Write a sequence for this structure.
């Protein structure tokens, strides 16, 4: 059984971010991060603030119209003391789909994924204005089953959490002494009214144990089968784009 040491991992993670910026970015380059107020953006932003200093982390809040839980994002920004900007993407998404509908009816997949891609476009626009690098906030558990949007939240310039499961991210959050309401905010897509786990059909706890080889899910064959199927179908989100070699 694997043993995870949150304190040691946090120290290594902070040093990794610091080294990445020192070796690849200008001395005043900022970490530009989308702030949802959930565990991943909270932990990633806190790690960057510890590695670079709070003035070199720029939080970007991107509600789509009215966002009922945006108070979590404000709490994170206040807790970390980082500068932030709020850019509402609602009118942009509405304008896009208004034009799109004159040509074809958007599928549910398009409706779900487009806002995430608009948010990533927004982050790169901000980064271009402030001399920044965009933080990818995906974790290993979400990546494993493809619970992210290709060229949306799955994009970014560097990824602090993509080798950590949800369980491990939570432990890092506790080590950082972040407010519990941020660490344990129930993740949801904000569209279907369901939590991530309800949409997936299995718990992150089961998924994390399976990934780390701590549980073969023999007693939960349906969950195992779904995890394996999602992992195979979504590997294209993690692998480099296939190219013709000639």
């Amino acid at each position: 059984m694997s043993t995870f040491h949150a304190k040691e991992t946090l120290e290594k993670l902070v040093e990794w971010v610091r080294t990445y910026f020192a070796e690849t970015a200008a001395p005043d380059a900022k970490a530009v991060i989308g702030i949802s107020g959930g565990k991943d953006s909270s932990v990633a932003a806190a790690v960057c603030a510890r590695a670079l200093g709070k003035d070199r982390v720029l939080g970007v809040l991107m509600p789509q119209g009215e966002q009922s839980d945006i108070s979590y994002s404000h709490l994170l920004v206040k807790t970390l003391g980082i500068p932030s900007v709020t850019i509402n993407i609602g009118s942009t998404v509405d304008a896009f789909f208004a034009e799109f509908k004159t040509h074809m009816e958007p599928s549910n997949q398009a409706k779900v994924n487009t806002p995430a891609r608009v948010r990533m476009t927004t982050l790169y626009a901000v980064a271009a204005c402030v001399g920044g690098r965009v933080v990818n906030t995906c974790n290993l558990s979400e990546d494993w089953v493809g619970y992210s949007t290709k060229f949306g939240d799955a994009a970014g310039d560097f990824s602090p959490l993509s080798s950590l499961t949800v369980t491990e991210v939570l432990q890092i959050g506790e080590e950082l002494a972040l407010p519990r309401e941020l660490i344990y905010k129930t993740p949801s897509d904000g569209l279907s009214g369901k939590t991530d786990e309800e949409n997936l059909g299995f718990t992150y706890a089961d998924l994390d144990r399976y990934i780390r080889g701590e549980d073969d899910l023999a007693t939960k064959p349906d969950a195992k089968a779904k995890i394996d199927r999602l992992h195979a179908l979504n590997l294209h989100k993690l692998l480099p784009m296939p190219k013709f070699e000639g």
